[in-house]
TrEMBL record:
Signal sequence interval, chain numbering: 1-21
Molecular functions per Gene Ontology: formylglycine-generating oxidase activity
Organism this protein belongs to: Lentimicrobium saccharophilum
Keyword Signal (UniProt): yes
UniProt key word Signal: yes
Keyword terms: Signal
All copies of domain Sulfatase-modifying factor enzyme-like, residue ranges: 61-357
Alphabetized InterPro entries for the sequence: CTDL_fold, Sulfatase_Mod_Factor_Kinase, SUMF_dom, SUMF_sf
Pfam families assigned: FGE-sulfatase
Domain of life the protein comes from: Bacteria
Stated name of the protein: Sulfatase-modifying factor enzyme 1
PROSITE patterns in UniProt: PROKAR_LIPOPROTEIN (PS51257)
Alphabetized PANTHER family for the sequence: FORMYLGLYCINE-GENERATING ENZYME, SULFATASE MODIFYING FACTOR 1, 2
Length: 497
């Protein structure tokens, strides 16, 4: 008589052994069959346990998508500079709050510790301009001394920072986070004696131009190697660069349409980062509470004593008010924020409909005559230069480095948009249709800033509004927050997609 129980047990045992064998088997190439991470067949290494990119502290994932970028209400200045255009923004990360005073003081402390003795100008160039608080007919003098340094303002947004300074902060933050990640992985030890060019820089480390205090080098499986190696980009240990968000990213994140979407249908086109056209909460629990810090009317910055409206005459703390549907604070009001783009009034007519941005200046790393990477500079950074027309002559997607003026409407971009025949430094600017920064305030150094501030009326709270300022100037109402690109898929793995 056949024992079905024994048959079932044998089948179960065979399936279990097969599963365990397959799960324990080492991964190999789908195209060549060679086993990964095997020193006996050449030692090609692949991170087979990689899950998702590490995320720096304070960042929120903004799931990308398509939206109508641009005008949502009439412009009181009658400017025609934000024509509605449907675009797609890829997923990215952005700071939950504006960069606060305490964050920027930490940055200055590091600069002073590392460069203060031999390169004090690095520290001085990074200092915010606290004189932005002075008014000719107002008494703001105490703020010149207290707003940035006093602990009462520790968690208030930093202001008096130019676009250039904000970008330098982003680069610094990239290196500090990556150094922390390498220390956390046990690859490096903290080096308290970093000075001048011998400070941790992500690109210099990857290029083999920074050693540091090595704790545990990664194993090199190459039979002809030394048996040790530094971390590589392929290991997925470090984060991509921090940077300012593009205008499209910032506007998309501020609108927070993820909370208004049902099956690819946006059920309500928002004017502000919340539903409706008012600035008070429409939830009963929060009736009467303002959702942003702004100027309600002439001379009214915070309301009447005993019944304050937004409760802040100046900027408020960075985590104040109600966050939008991405969990981002103060995407309307408090301080306006720098974004990456160069300003042109009609950029929306010509920009790409995927990841739109104006401001590209394509660069490449500096090499010596033999093609080897040049030594890092005196601040410990890898050197870059603009790509030349000769290097780009066989490309079809660009022919020159500087694309800021591409399709912006002047003769330069109309007749010779890619500088293919005329060197950029030999162009006679008197023959241009108009002269940036001479007949107009617009120049290649005019950078966009977005959102309203503590001193702006409600109109500027709309994420669609756009203004601009020279990249080297600063005010008491413009701050910034950092962003980071998402590598890989559009979804977070926590969503199970």
């Amino acid at each position: 008589m056949i024992s079905y129980r024994n048959i079932y047990l044998k089948i179960f045992f065979f399936a279990t052994v097969t599963f365990l064998a397959s799960s324990c088997a080492k991964e190999s190439s789908r195209t060549t069959g060679w086993e990964y991470n095997n020193s006996k067949n050449g030692g090609f290494q692949v991170n087979t346990k990689y899950g998702e990119q590490p995320v720096g502290p304070g960042l929120k994932l903004v799931e990308g998508g398509t939206f109508t970028m641009g005008r949502t209400s009439d412009n009181p200045m009658y400017d025609w500079d934000n024509i509605p255009r449907r675009v797609t923004v890829p997923s990215f990360y952005i700071d939950e709050t504006e960069v606060a005073n305490v964050d920027y003081v930490e940055y200055l402390y590091w600069l002073s510790r590392v460069f203060g003795t031999d390169y004090p100008e690095v520290y001085r160039k990074a200092l915010p301009d606290t004189l932005v608080w002075r008014e000719k007919l107002a008494y703001n003098e105490p703020l010149v001394e207290t707003y940035f340094r006093h602990p009462a303002y520790r968690n208030y947004p930093v202001v008096g920072v130019s676009w250039v300074q904000a970008n330098e902060y982003c680069l610094w933050r990239t290196d500090r986070v990556n150094e922390m990640l390498l220390i956390r992985e046990g690859i490096l030890d903290f080096d308290p004696d970093q000075r001048n060019e011998n400070n941790f820089n992500t690109e210099a480390y990857l290029a083999g131009q920074y050693e540091g205090l090595v704790n545990k080098p990664l194993k090199d499986l190459n039979p002809s190697g030394t048996g040790e190696r530094r971390a590589r980009l392929e290991d997925g240990i470090m984060v991509p660069k921090y940077r300012l968000p593009t205008e499209a990213e910032w506007e998309f994140a501020a609108l927070g349409l993820v909370g208004n979407t049902v099956y690819e249908r946006i059920v309500e086109r928002r004017v502000y980062p919340w539903n409706g056209t008012i600035v008070r909460s429409d939830q009963k629990k929060y009736y009467g509470q303002f959702l942003a810090n702004f100027k309600r009317g002439r001379g009214d910055y915070m309301g009447v004593a005993g019944s304050l409206n937004d409760g802040a005459d100046l900027p408020a703390e960075v985590a104040s008010y109600w966050p939008n549907d991405y969990g981002l604070y103060n995407m309307a009001g408090n301080v306006a924020e720098w974004v990456l783009d160069v300003y042109r009034p009609l950029t929306f007519e010509d920009m790409a409909d995927y990841a739109p941005y104006r401001g590209n200046v394509f660069t490449t790393k500096v090499t010596d005559e033999e093609g080897f990477l040049a030594p890092k500079d005196s601040l410990g950074r890898i050197k870059y230069r603009e790509v030349t027309t000769e290097e780009s002559k066989d490309r079809f997607n660009y022919r020159s480095a500087n694309q800021i003026n591409y399709l912006d409407g002047d003769y330069q971009s109309t007749i010779n948009p890619d500088w293919t025949t005329i060197p950029a430094d030999s162009v006679n600017t008197t023959n241009m249709m108009y002269e940036y920064a001479k007949t107009s305030l617009v120049s290649d150094k005019s950078r966009v800033y977005k959102g309203g501030s503590w001193r702006d009326p409600a109109y500027y709270l709309s994420p669609a509004t756009r203004r601009y300022l020279d990249q080297n100037l600063s005010t008491n109402y413009i701050g910034f927050r950092c962003a980071m690109g998402k590598v890989g898929g559009a979804y977070s793995s926590s969503k199970g997609k």
